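Can you give me the bound-state structure? Components:
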Amino acid sequence: MGVLGTFGQRARAAAGWFTHPLLPDDLLSTLNPLWSTREPHARVVGLRRETADTTTLMLRTGRSWPVHRPGQFVGVGVRIDGVWHWRTYSATSRPEEPLLAITVTALPRGAVSGVLAHGTPVGALLRIGPPAGEFVLPQPVPEKLLFVTAGSGITPVMAMLRDLAANRPEALAGAVLVHCDRTPTDVVFGPQLRALADSSGLRLVERHTAVSGRLTPEELTDAVPDWPAREAWACGPAGLLDDLAAHWARHGAPESLHVERFTPPATVADGAPGGRVTFTTSGITTDTAPGTPLLAAGEAAGALLPNGCRMGICHTCVGRLRTGAVRDLRTGDLHDIPGEPVRTCVSGAAGDVEIEL
Amino acid sequence: MAIPTFTPSTKPSAAAHLSDEQIEELGAELDAIRAEIVDSLGEADARYIHRVIAVQRGLEVAGRGVLIFSLFPPAWIAGTAALSAAKILDNMEIGHNVLHGQWDWMRDPRIHSTTWEWDHATPAKSWKKSHNYEHHTFTNVRGKDRDLGYSVMRITPEQEWKPADLIQPLTNIGLSLIFEWGIALYDLEVDRVKEGSKSKEQLKEDLKGLWRKARRHLAKDYVLFPALSGPGFLHTAAANLTANVVRNVWSHAVIFCGHFPDGTETFEEERLEGETKGQWYVRQMLGSANLSGGRLFHIMTGNLSHQIEHHLFPDIPSNRYAEIAPRVREICERYGLPYTTGPLPKQYAKVVRKIVRLAFPGGGEKPADVRQLPARRQANGTPIRLAG
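Here's the bound-state model for the whole set.
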């Protein structure tokens, strides 16, 4: 691999002299976007309607695309009216499967999720980022597992369950999944989850919030009395995750609860009054409204900025603070030390600010 | 390269009859057109630029592929023609316009002003500074817009005549043949180093940047691809040279027709002080001239055939200029402003005539009935923000 890798690099560098000022990758991607390693693409080759507002997209990726670990998310870029938009979705397929599956729930007023869930035909080209995220099962897999999910929070867990069913059926046998959604028909992967519970020994606790209301930690512990002995993975709305984190902190071992906050940050607008932001690499300057992430403001002004999960998880969007102050829109923390790395996707301007991007 | 000196204009501006209010009204109308177009950009535009890029790459690969057999005369001709067209598309409709930021709205890192590099001697970065900022902001302002004659020619009668100007018809032919290298040298701004407004260190830095780019540029056309042709080395090198010269002559002609034909005006530096957006628009219109032709012609000129529209809206995608043009022309008619346009041979003949005439002293209008633009307007508009 080492020798081949060096050879490949040399071959590419040599080819670069022939394709200058383009890269060989530019020409390859003009022929077939899936051949690009610089800007990985995926083609939609199948669609599965999961519920009224949720669709699974089956994607064929390029050969160089790295394999995900179950529970990880990928950035997905889609061209809408000529403009690339990026969002983050969990992979719901197993790593060994030939196609990558992502499962998208159309959000109310969600321009991008709506297009992906309802308006992306078979044959469409998407761009994808590398898989990322630490919401994964460790090796070896803990003996006693608990999953707590709500709504589309099932998606990363679904990849884990599928992987366990195929490769570690013994770990799945004693596991518990507590899943919340409004009604039985709203449950994403409902039929598959019920079938999996029947065949594998997974205990599935479905809670339908339209009838029973929101899950409380007390109800959870009633349903799963041995919860302190279990290693737990939870994904869902911020309210549920906050409740669980508080419960584990008070009554259990906080380190045995793993959460994935998979919703865009709720903004603490009063802490970030907005201001003029300058991106030093491009020289683009724009005024940001209170509570607007720097990334969104910069993109609206035409700046090309690195971005990934867009919710403060993956650190792809980090740029150094040159001058001024920013506020973390999720926590309200103020950052004003020059040279400090700033996550532009969840930081708003607190006055005029310069970011080295 | 000497720093040119200028004398005051003796000719009234074609916009002298417009009141301040009219100029601001005109500005508002143009702003409205701009907003409407920006609002309507979408999938069809994205498909257009992707298609042009794919065609350009196809032509280049095909041209260079055929030129491997350049010893065979039909292959030489076909390959050179394809490569010339590819180079023209690369520089004009793609490179120039992408580097203006016309396609930045797509948020595509592959087609973006900050990542693009083109098949041109001058590095994209130097070009963006000299062209996007200086030329587009100070268009046709004597002493500020270095593109006026590119510091080697006397292109406006207000520029003082020097005996060296006598050879400028020849200079023009020479520049036309090596245009990309002329631009690359010109972007180094050696005149500014002499004048003291640019440091020697900066010049060294720029020279390094140019060398890094130019060596690959030269190696590709004159060593690597010729070597692929084996015994046809010299034939392929000659074909590549021909393609480069064709591109140079073409882009020189198109670009010179953009600001130098009869009917375009140049302006005094004082005009910039407190200039409003409306006045800026008027200056862009009076300082630019269009070329008429068909759809393919417009594409091959990079839509600089719509120079007036390009100068009004430098960061609007070039495929939209054709639809804007009749509306701009109608505005010019309504406000009694000239809208200079004509076929390329006719316009280029005017440019050559001007260059020949101005090789000799004089050449301005008789100083009769001098009506200057009402000078020193109050700044009553928003400051100019030039995008791109």
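A couple of observations. Residues 20-363 of chain B form one domain. The interface with chain A takes residues 41-47, 53-54, 57, 61, 101, 104-110, 112, 114-115, 117-119, 213, 216-217, 219-220, 224-225, 387 of chain B (CB under 8 Å).
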